[in-house]
Amino acid sequence: MLKQKTNHQGSFAAVIAIAVLLGLIVLLENLSDLIPGLPAIFAPTSQLFTVLKKGAVYSLLAVSMNLLNGFTGLFSLGQAGFMLLGAYTYAILTVPMAAKDQVYYLYGGSAVKFSLMDLFQGIFGNAGFGGGVSLILAVLVGLILAGLVAALFAALIGMPVLRLKSDYLAIATLGFAEILRAIFQWQTLGPITNGANMIKNFPTFSDFNIKNASGEVVLRLSTFVPFLVSIVCITLIVLLIHSSYGRAFKAIRDDEVAAEAMGISLFKHKMLSFVISSFFAGVGGGLFAMYVANAQAKAFTSTMTYEILLIVVIGGIGSISGSVIGTFLYVACSEWWLRFLDRETYIGSFKVPLLRSGFRMVVFSVVIMIIVLFFSKGIMGEKELSWKGIGGLLQKLKRKKPAPAAEKED
Amino acid sequence: MEQLISAEYLVSILLSGISLGGQLALIAIGYTMVYGILRLINFAHGDVFMVAGLLGIYVSAAVPIYIAIPIVIVLTVALGFFIERAAYKPLRSAPRMSVMISAIGVSYLLENTATYVTGGQPMTYPTISFLTKTVNIVGTSTKLVVIITPILVLVLIALLTQLINHTKIGMAMRAVSKDFETSRLMGIKINTVISMTFVIGSALAVVGSILYFTTYPAITPTAGAMPGLKAFVAAVFGGIGSIPGAVIGAFIIGICETIIKGLPSAWNVSVFSDAFTFALLIFILIFKPTGLFGEKATDKV
């Protein structure tokens, strides 16, 4: 799906691959309803779907960070700040009017007397097909606005910040993210941001599960939705990277002075990359709020930025497909595959040493350090996943396989 | 207004501001020295400071506190030395960003290990009776630690300045921070100098942690992150690479932060005590990126 599009045939294949992937996601999610008696792994509440949803959200966040850090060479650590802006914009604008008094009860209701949900429900109705249309439109408009607010803020701070060099840029963007976090926790803004408390009751992924009249779920789409949004956004980023702008970004990354000498406007392109990356970080922040079903400023710490940065490093700085693969590996390991490390385990009467709560993250960070130190190119380096690449790899394997067999016969 | 702010209140705020500033200064020196030599923001330094605090708790549970302190210093210095050898040395010829990512990785590892060891619960730092004695100063009663901190900081800085200006290793440090490659060619053992920098930085972080956690006794795995970042801002403010600059920056940040926290609670501004530091950082980066005492660096093509 992330093949370099050199011709129309390639793009056509990519579109087909995306459609097949989305179809498979829908099928997988509804499998337990279609065929009863499947293993627990296919149940809608299983770790598998947590990983898929979180993976879809984090993929977008990682790719948007990679656009800036990997493709433009701007080392920014402001990701959590832009996510925060996106999450809050989405949450504030989509909490239904009816739920506002309950969410903002500490402040006697919200100062924002407006909700995208009510706006669209007023036009299309709030039940049946019309309800679905208004939900889709409210979420869509909410996410786009989330991105725009983050992009606007990036444009504002970009002017002074982008003049700074490498690590100064990193620390300045980190600083802005911390300032944003303080502002959104400020009691005085409580009627808008709900102070240090969380905003909730806005539409989340599970609202997209289609229910029948008696309230039973007939078609689950809660994993499909984050995948769809992420794929659309990542495709837009891929198209950008393959455009002349993307080539300019890479030129700036490889050598600023040479790029400028070739007539590339450094400031214009850096700003463009910064604003676009922030836009998608904002959308990702909105998706993140949908995933955790709340928006709270204290979640968006610098640790979150570091986490996404480490994902980008694992996947390979400068590789989109690497970021996506890295994300799913990271999320699957931290949420699912390494869970056993956190449980105290007995083999017979022998207690396996070290295993207790928190050990998973220790092992995990050691693995990350090993990757950072010894495999600094990450999984993909700067390469992308392509049909050709997979084909080549398969052929290599085919050629290799008979060789050891032959040796054994000798 | 006059009723709100009494002279005693003002003195007590100023005193605790100076004390916080001194504690930050001890961390800031670690940042500024490492940056001066390696051009690396050592994101793990704040976590080394946190680990020093945790070691203080665990070691002092086994032996009396006055024996514990030297042991903690030795252990933390060993940690700092080991981090440099394991995580930064292999990347000496790699791009600067890789080393910074490695530093972030180390910080992540230290925080996660601390969560594992402590179970994520806040730990209480042992009371050092000598430091928590109450004394009277200008009509305000305060803990002795508040008075001792700035004095101790000044003494340590004086010693450090002597070391840097008048010893062989100090001269080597200055040479390396001036020009990494040339000093290597001149026969300076780069790795010894860098290790020494980490040793000094970690030792000062231990002193800082004793003073800091005596004042704010709860240690969580992320307790080092904020003081660490603030100390870094102090280092940038004073001009990165400059030790007096870092100390002055730390005192300014410490005092300003305590003042913001001490403002009337009706204004609801105490939430900005951390944000203020970063606003200061951005201000200085935009208007005087070299800081108060920093040297101007030019880009070489």
In short:
The complex is a heterodimer of chains A (410) and B (301). Chain A has 410 residues and is mainly alpha-helical.
Q: How would you describe the overall organization of this protein?
A:
The complex is a heterodimer of chains A (410) and B (301). In chain A, a hairpin with a 2-residue loop joins strand 3 (346-347) and strand 4. Chain A has one domain (8-337, 380-409). Chain A has 17 helices and four strands. The longest helix of chain A is centred in the middle third of the chain and has 34 residues, at 128-161. In chain A, helix 2 (47-71) packs parallel to helix 9. With 410 residues, chain A is mainly α. In chain B, helix 2 crosses helix 9 (190-215), helix 3 (65-88) packs across helix 9 and helix 6 (144-166) packs across helix 7. In chain B, strand 2 (134-137) and strand 3 form a beta hairpin. Chain B has one domain (7-223). Chain B starts with 6 loop residues before the first helix and ends in a 14-residue tail after the last helix. With 301 residues, chain B is mainly alpha-helical. In chain B, the strands form two sheets. Chain B has a two-stranded antiparallel ribbon with strand order 1-4. A two-stranded antiparallel sheet of chain B has the order 2-3. Chain B has helices spanning 7-38, 45-62, 65-88, 96-118, 129-132, 144-166, 168-178, 180-185, 190-215, 225-238, 243-262, 273-287; strands spanning 123-124, 134-137, 140-143, 218-219.
